[in-house]
Amino acid sequence: MFSCSTMMHIPTSQFLKLSKFKPIPDPRCKTKVATLSMGCFWGPDSLFGSIKGIMRTKVGYTGGSEPDLPTYKSIGDYIESIELYYDPSKITYLDLLQVFWNNHDSTDKSSYRQYISAIHFHDKEQEQQARDSMKKMEETKSNSIQTLLMPYKTFYDAENYHQKYILRKYKIFLESLCLNDDEIKNTYAACVLNGYLGGHISETEKVRILDIGLSDEQLRYLEACL
Q1: Residue 15's pLDDT is what?
Q2: Is 4 an annotated catalytic residue?
Q3: CA-based angle 197:201:207, to the nearest 5?
């Protein structure tokens, strides 16, 4: 289970200036949506941002019933979650579920509802695939799976400082991107960079970094970071 308290502090850049970002347009494709909960949402935001076929990610709160809008400091019965916009021609919902199962402890019964494991299905097809994948996972576990399968409810975006949390740690680099808070939350470039700076993108996948329009100076900085 991802835990906010165990996330490592990431140092900011030692560069005084960086060339400004000249982004290419976000890839044009029809996307589908998946919504998952696997503990603190900072880690999954970076993890899924590194995966080919993920176009956008954002973190927030869902799965609750209380009438007041949830916030991080007043979350009520809502659950920290991540919303994924993916290209189904490059990655499937079942692929996303496999990443979900492999990257948190689904047998952990959190004492805080905020951090429970859950799959929020958007339609009947997602529900059936979630149930089938969970059944397969149960066959591999010695302890019972605690993951909840829930119909999707309204997703409330988390506060801006939670969106692309790892990318925001590199403050000078982030300033060079010239992205506003809405663009940090919703653009493909921010999604990929958050995955890269979380250490998830492999050497063979680094070509995706080259495709988003960074300057040579920004690329050298990224290399220095990792």
Answers
A1: 45
A2: no
A3: 105
99 Cβ contact list (under 8 Å, min separation 6): 47, 48, 51
Q: What is the mean pLDDT of each run of 10 residues along the chain (226 residues)?
A: 46 52 75 97 96 95 94 96 96 98 94 96 98 96 95 97 96 89 94 92 77 86 82
| Candidate list 4, 40, 178, 191, residue with the active-site label | 40
Work out the number of other CB atoms within 10 angstroms of the CB of residue 131.
13
Q: Scan for tokens 């290209």, then name that residue.
A: 87
Q: CA-to-CA distance for 176 and 174, rounded, in angstroms?
A: 5
Q: What residues form DSSP beta bridges with 85?
A: 33, 56
Residue 171 and residue 13 in contact, taking contact as beta carbons nearer than 8 Å: yes
- Amino acid occupying residue 72: Y
Map tokens 């900072």 to a residue.
Answer: 42
For residue 138, the model assigns a pLDDT of: 94
Residue 178's region, left for phi above 0, alpha for psi from -120 to 50, else beta, is left
| Residue 73 to residue 165: CA distance in whole angstroms | 17
Per DSSP (E only), the strands in 76-116 are 79-86
DSSP string for residues in 52-72: TTEEEEEEEEES---SSPPBT
CATH architecture of the region 15-225: 2-Layer Sandwich (3.30)
Rg (CA), the chain: 18
Long-range contacts of 124-133 (CB under 8 A, 24+ apart): 125/93, 126/34, 126/93, 127/151, 129/93, 129/94, 129/97, 130/97, 133/94, 133/97, 133/98, 133/101
| Amino acid at residue number 148 | L
